[in-house]
């Protein structure tokens, strides 16, 4: 049975129009994106297969083209469309953080970081540069590392902060291990960066550890 044969109240597109996108499951939202299924599978079935094989939405968005195309009915066109949707979501969050007080929307910061570095297989160290009103100036990856560590140089961070004329910063790095808990080295690094930036009167507002779709906030845990 195709989705067109389902009762109107159960079809993803009709449910969205009637109740809003927030009332749809991940599979139903993906099904609307896919539009059609393949022989023997509805778009919802295909979406469920994607979520199962790639480990949820984060996995779907971060999968390689080769892996994506390994599912019958998916290919380059759908992959490009999906990556475009992801990039639009990232830019919308960046726009939101750039227009208002970033600290007033911590969920936006967390969501952006999860999409940006949550699923990476190697560590990256990100810095969000903010102005005096806590609006985002720029978000940049300053250092890239290995599976387990990244070398971060305070001097280079200070140099970049001054180039952006930032009043404050938010740090973030990912843990490919999947555990969003800071190590003792992470804590020492954060203190070293905070001390270095104090010399140029720049505040460290937070440091996020990101793993998959979860984050650990130094500020919320009282570590700053």
In the CATH hierarchy, what is the superfamily of the largest domain?
Cytidine Deaminase, domain 2
Tell me the CATH architecture of the largest domain: 3-Layer(aba) Sandwich
Average pLDDT rating: 89
The overall strand count is 5
What characteristic shape results from the CA principal axes?
A: elongated
Helix content: 40-55%
Q: Total domains, how many?
A: 2
Order of helices and strands: HHHHHHHEEHEHEE
Residue share in β-strands = 15-25%
Low-confidence segments = none
Structural class: alpha+beta
| Separation, N- and C-terminal Cα atoms | 57 Å
CATH topology tier name of the largest domain: Cytidine Deaminase, domain 2
- Let me know the largest β-sheet: 5 strands, mixed
Q: Using only CA atoms, what is the Rg?
A: 20 Å
Task: Count the DSSP helices.
Answer: 9
Main sheet: strand order: 2-1-3-4-5
Q: What is the CATH class of the largest domain? A: Alpha Beta
């Amino acid at each position: 049975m195709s989705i067109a044969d389902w009762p109107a109240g159960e079809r993803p597109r009709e449910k969205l129009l009637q109740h809003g996108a927030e009332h749809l499951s991940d599979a139903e939202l993906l099904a609307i994106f896919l539009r059609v299924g393949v022989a023997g599978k509805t778009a919802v079935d295909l979406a469920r297969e994607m979520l199962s094989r790639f480990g949820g939405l984060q996995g779907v968005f971060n999968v390689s083209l080769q892996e994506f195309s390994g599912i019958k009915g998916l290919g380059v066109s759908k992959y490009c469309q999906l990556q475009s949707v992801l990039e639009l979501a990232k830019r919308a969050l960046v726009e939101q953080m750039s227009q208002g007080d970033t600290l007033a929307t911590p969920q936006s910061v967390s969501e952006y970081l999860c999409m940006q570095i949550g699923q990476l297989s190697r560590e990256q160290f990100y810095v969000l540069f903010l102005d005096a009103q806590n609006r985002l100036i720029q978000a940049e990856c300053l250092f890239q590392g290995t599976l387990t560590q990244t070398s971060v140089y305070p001097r280079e961070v200070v140099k970049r902060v001054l180039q952006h004329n930032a009043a404050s910063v938010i740090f973030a790095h990912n843990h490919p291990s999947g555990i969003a808990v800071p190590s003792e080295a992470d804590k020492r690094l954060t203190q070293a960066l905070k001390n270095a930036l104090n010399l140029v009167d720049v505040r460290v507002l937070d440091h996020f550890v990101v793993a998959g779709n979860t984050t650990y906030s130094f500020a919320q845990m009282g570590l700053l």
